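stage 2 :: seqdesign
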C-alpha cells in the first residue's frame, strides 16, 4: 500500500533485520520499527506491534530465520515463536516451513521466509481478484476487525476484494465494526480505507442487527485466523455474532483467507485454541489528547473484572463461502 509517495509492505526483512509498521501507534502515528533478533521479533508479535494472521505468519517465518542466523538452538527458537500467539494457523505454518528449510542451511531458511512473505502477497492479490466478482456496483459491505493490508504482508484478505472493486471503479461503501477491545476496525481498517479513498463508516460493534434490519448491508466479508477441516472458522471475537445476524437477515457471509490458513489437522472449531488476552485491554483505552500526546485512560468501573477472549468460532453452516487464491468456494 502507498503511504505518502512510498509503497510499503506491513512487514519485511532486509539482511538480518525485520522491519514492521507499528500497528500499536496507528492511526495516530506512522512509524516503522526494526527488530534485530529473534526474541525482539517474538516480543513484537506478543505485543501486537504486528498482528493479523497473514502478517504474524510472515513475522514468525522471519523470526525463525533470525534464530538460524544467530545460531540459536532451532528447537528452542521454534518453541518460543510458537508460544507467542496460539490461534492463527499461518504462524505455525510459517515457522515449521522455515524450521525445515534451516536444516539445509541458514541461507535456505532466509530464502524460505522471504518466499513465504512473497507468497502471502500473491495469495492476497488473487483473493482480491476472485472476491471482486462478489461485489456489485453500489454494494454496502460489513467487515469485522482488520483483515486488510495491515493484517497481511500486503493487500489483505477480506479487504483485498474491496480494494480491487474500488480500483475497478465500483461505488462501494464499507461499514467497519469498531472491534473492541483493541479497536482494530476503528483504528486500522478505517485508516486503511481512508488511505485508499474507499467510502466508509465506523460502526459500534453492537450495531450489526440495526444496520441489517434497515437494509443497509448487502454483503459481509471477514478474514480468518484458522479454518478447521469441517469449515468452522476462528476469527476475531464478534465474528460469530455477525454470521448469526447475516443468516437471520439472509445476507451472504463470506470468509476470505489464503490456503495457509486452512488447518486440515484440526477436525472442527472445538479443537482450535482460543487466545485469551489481558483484561486490561477491556479496561483501558489509549489515544491522543488535543496536543497529540498519547494517553491511556480507564473506561470501565474500577474494581470490576473483565473477560477478554480474542477470537470466537463461526460454525461452517453459517458461512456462505470462502474466497481463497484458488477462487470462491461455496
Ligand atoms: O488479534 P488480531 O488483531 O491479530 O486478530 C486479527 C483478526 O482476527 C483478523 O480478522 C484475522 O487475522 C484475519 S485476516 C488478517
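stage 2 :: out
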Amino acid at each position: 500500500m502507498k503511504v505518502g509517495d512510498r509503497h510499503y509492505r506491513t512487514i519485511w526483512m532486509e539482511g538480518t533485520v525485520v522491519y514492521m509498521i507499528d500497528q500499536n501507534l496507528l492511526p495516530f502515528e506512522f512509524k516503522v520499527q526494526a527488530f534485530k533478533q529473534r526474541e525482539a521479533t517474538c516480543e513484537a508479535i506478543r505485543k501486537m506491534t504486528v498482528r493479523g494472521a497473514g502478517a504474524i505468519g510472515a513475522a514468525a517465518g522471519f523470526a525463525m530465520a533470525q534464530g538460524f542466523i544467530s545460531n540459536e538452538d532451532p528447537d528452542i527458537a521454534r518453541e518460543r515463536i510458537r508460544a507467542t500467539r496460539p490461534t492463527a494457523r499461518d504462524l505455525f505454518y510459517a515457522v515449521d516451513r522455515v524450521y525445515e528449510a534451516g536444516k539445509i542451511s541458514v541461507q535456505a531458511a532466509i530464502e524460505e521466509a522471504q518466499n513465504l512473505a512473497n507468497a502471502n502477497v500473491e495469495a492476497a492479490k488473487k483473493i482480491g481478484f476472485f472476491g471482486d466478482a462478489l461485489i456489485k456496483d453500489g454494494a454496502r459491505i460489513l467487515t469485522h476487525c482488520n483483515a486488510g493490508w495491515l493484517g497481511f504482508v500486503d493487500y489483505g484478505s477480506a479487504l483485498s476484494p474491496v480494494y480491487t472493486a474500488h480500483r475497478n471503479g465500483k461505488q462501494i461503501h464499507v461499514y467497519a465494526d469498531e472491534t473492541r477491545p483493541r479497536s482494530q476496525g476503528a483504528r486500522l481498517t478505517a485508516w486503511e480505507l481512508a488511505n485508499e479513498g474507499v467510502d466508509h463508516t465506523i460502526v459500534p460493534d453492537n450495531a450489526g442487527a440495526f444496520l441489517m434490519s434497515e437494509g443497509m448491508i448487502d454483503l459481509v466479508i471477514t478474514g480468518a485466523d484458522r479454518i478447521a477441516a469441517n469449515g468452522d472458522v476462528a476469527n476475531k471475537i464478534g465474528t460469530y455474532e455477525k454470521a448469526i445476524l447475516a443468516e437471520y437477515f439472509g445476507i451472504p457471509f463470506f470468509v476470505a483467507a489464503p490456503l495457509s490458513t486452512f488447518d486440515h489437522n484440526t477436525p472442527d472449531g472445538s479443537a482450535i485454541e482460543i487466545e485469551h488476552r489481558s483484561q486490561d485491554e477491556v479496561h483501558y483505552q489509549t489515544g491522543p489528547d488535543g496536543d497529540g500526546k498519547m494517553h491511556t485512560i480507564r473506561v470501565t468501573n474500577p474494581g470490576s473484572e473483565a473477560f477478554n477472549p480474542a477470537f470466537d468460532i463461526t460454525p461452517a453452516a453459517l458461512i456462505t463461502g470462502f474466497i481463497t487464491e484458488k477462487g470462491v468456494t461455496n
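stage 3 :: structure notes
- The pocket of MRU is lined by residues 51-54, 88, 145, 147, 151-152, 157, 184, 223-225, 235-236, 310 (CB under 6 Å).
- Residues 148 and 159 are 5 Å apart (CA to CA).
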